[in-house]
Amino acid sequence: MAENRPLYLGPRLRRLRRELGLTQQGMAADLAISPSYVALLERNQRPVTADMLLRLARTYRLDMAEIAGDEGEDYARRLAEVLRDPIFADIDLPRLEVADLAMSFPGISEALLRLHQAYVREAQALAEQRSAGPGVDENEPVREAQRFLAANRNYFHVLDTRAEDLAAEIENAGGATQWLAGKGVRVRFLPPSVLVDSLRRFDRHNQQLLIADTLDAASRAFQIATHIAHSVLRAEIKQAIRAESFSSRTAAALLLRALAGYAAAAIVMPYTAFARAVEQRGYDIDALCALFGASFEQVAHRLTTLQRPGDERVGFFFIRVDEAGNVSKRLDGAGFPFAAHGGGCPLWTVHQVFRRPGEIVTQWLELPGGERFFSIARTVRGGATGHGAPRVLRAVALACAAEHAGRLVYVDKADPARERPTPIGVTCRLCQRAECTARSVPPIGRDVLADEYRRAAQPYTFAES
User: Fold this and answer.
1) What stretches of 93-215 show up as alpha helix (H) in DSSP?
2) Burial 101-127 (b: 16+ CB within 10 A, else e)
């Protein structure tokens, strides 16, 4: 038998009254009740009776189901999600108590939800400001450029479709070198010493594109495509940036370079052909490298951009770090929580693959809020080849939502780690997992105990309140 619960609609009734532009006295007159009774209903000090529900529906021509919809269940679900935050881990929160709070006190439930949202936003802003270091503006150009790319989910439709058209023209011409020759531009491969240590330089006077001959084939192709993007797609790139205002010229310059790289990848790996191939090959990055003549990092980068409306593929978050843990690139194609400043958790294997260079390492991850992801990480080398040439070893990682991981060839469905994901944090400042032994700094909002009489396994122990 269904349980008969009193129906409290205080916040919803107040919202309805305000939407109708009524005072409590005006609504009371419409419903033939006293203003004090309206006030009691809005404060959830009186339940809404069946008769009152009918009056509301008739008077304001509303759907009764819409008025009486179970707002409590929605509050209970949202509260349960918030209370999974590890900051509440040491508090006994029975499910029935949460449900009773949501059903009986929706106003307080809404207040708690808003308070937690404000706490999360402020904690993120403070963590970002502290990670930037003293004297560094939180609107620092690199972060500003990252936020712009994340806001667009790293997909730019006009740029991508125009690049795809260009790729078809280039293929019909027999390749990028031949296509440029048809435009009066000669491509030459020269030693870096001749190029004054440049990897790519355009000699406008002689109409020559000069490329370092020490680059591998994938890097040569990408540099040529980048030149084409800068010269042919300049208007489209600037149009994408022009719609925004930036705090400095540096941020705009960084985005100009980033979008030229985006367009170059779209020329080398045209959307339709690439999207079809990723599904056929199960997102096998090495196979895609061979098919499109691209590097591991280039393919991983391109995988974050497959968000064309109506033809979306698995959304990925991309990160690149060096051996010191410095993050040199973040790209977000799926709106993931670590888009702003994630990637610093040492438990993520992106920081451990330096011990296994060239090997793909997979990992199941779980954030403090319960969100689960699947990660692919591998080292990549940058710079020119040749004896004595400076080479940089970095690690790149892709992460996708756990529910989409089954489409990837890297997933072993029998892997027991799938049910026991590695608990990681976005950054130590925002991670409230008190038991973490890999923590580098205390989280925002927690008081650290002095540990005068004991030493715990974790670096810090926290007061319960």
Assistant:
1) 95-104, 106-132, 141-151, 157-173, 176-182
2) bbbebbeebbebbeebeeeeeebbeeb
Mean pLDDT, each 10-residue run in order, the chain (465 residues): 64 79 90 92 85 88 68 75 78 81 75 78 65 51 83 91 96 96 95 82 90 92 96 91 79 91 97 97 97 96 94 93 88 71 80 93 89 94 70 92 94 83 83 82 75 74 62
Contact 300, 396 (CB under 8 A): yes
Q: Would the CATH topology of 10-109 be identical to that of 296-426?
A: no
CA dihedral 251, 256, 261, 267 (to 10 degrees): 150
How many CB atoms sit inside 10 A of residue 254's CB?
19
Spatial CB neighbours of 35, under 8 Å, sequence gap ≥ 6: 24, 25, 28
- CATH number among 3.40.50.1820, 1.10.260.40, 3.50.50.60, 3.40.50.300, domain 10-109: 1.10.260.40
What six digits make up the tokens of 161?
A: 């479709």
d(CA 314, CA 375): 13
- The full length of the chain comes to 465
Q: Which two three-digit tokens encode residue 223?
A: 């540099």
